Amino acid sequence: QCEGAASIYTMGTSMFGGGGFQDMQDDHCVCVKKEEAKEHYAKLFQKIYKNHSSKSEEEISDTIGNLMGKIPDNTNQQVPKLAKLFYKLVKKYDSSIRHEGTRIGMKPPSPKDEL
Predict the structure, then answer these.
(1) Distance between CA 80 and CA 89 in Å, rounded?
(2) Which of 32, 64, 81, 104 has the fewest Cβ atoms nearer than 10 Å?
(3) If we measure between CA atoms, which residue out of 11, 13, 20, 15 comes closest to residue 102?
(4) CB contact at 8 A, 81 and 71
(5) How far apart are the C-alpha atoms of 20 and 102, rounded to whole Å?
(6) What DSSP line would sit under 55-68, residue for residue?
(7) How far is Cα 102 from Cα 1, in angstroms, rounded to an integer?
(8) Of the candidates 42, 33, 47, the residue with the CA atom closest to the CA atom of residue 93
(9) What would the pLDDT profile of 24-78 be if each residue is shown by its tens digit?
């Protein structure tokens, strides 16, 4: 599923002149097994909170525990919910987005449709 989604993004961006997307994806994206997705996102969320929020370690731990408690154990239902949480977190802490190339110094693009 991860590789399928990556192929769609690659195709879409290459059609519109975004050939650099593939290079960036190769450098920064990680595919994990479904069974490991929840743990992977918990670590990612912890890193974002630690580096981009004013929360204490205890608050971060509590927040992540609460968030992960809302994620179902069924792995087929986990990925969309984790992705949505990730989107909300990055939107809230947009300083967690590292720009490269021509995007350096620019604000994150605003999506037309919210999730």
Answers:
(1) 14
(2) 104
(3) 20
(4) yes
(5) 11
(6) --HHHHHHHHHHHH
(7) 30
(8) 47
(9) 667 767 888 888 889 999 999 999 999 999 999 999 999 999 999 999 888 788 8
